[in-house]
Amino acid sequence: MERFFRALGSAATSFFHLMLPISWMRLTVDDPRRLEIASSRGDLVVDSHRRVISRRGEVIAKFEEIKFIVLCKIRRGEYGIFWSVRLHRGPLVNIDLGACEDDLDASLIAARISKALDVPVKYW
Fold first, then answer.
1. How many Å apart are CA 96 and CA 16, to the nearest integer?
2. Which residues of the chain have a pLDDT value below 50?
3. pTM, full prediction
4. Residue 7, H or E segment
């Protein structure tokens, strides 16, 4: 069953991302109490003091809601390969944070968020 949802999620995500313009994200503040990530989808803040993740000042998730971080390789046709970083809340419930062209950048962002939330990173 889990394999089915992964395949379904991966296929839907790949199709969805083909429809989007190129996205980007980069870590701008790397502090144990606060991460700030600039993103084409809106700046993110991972606030360890308040234990929330916000986008454009609005809380999008509480730390305890997130089961793990997803790092996903996506092919975007002529645009090449991108690496998506997502928060996984549960079956079919992911919050897409953004994507990077560079796998190292995406891995670093996923690892930093993982450490702040104390959850694993999973590759899909």
1. 11
2. 5, 14, 17-19
3. 0.80
4. helix 2-19
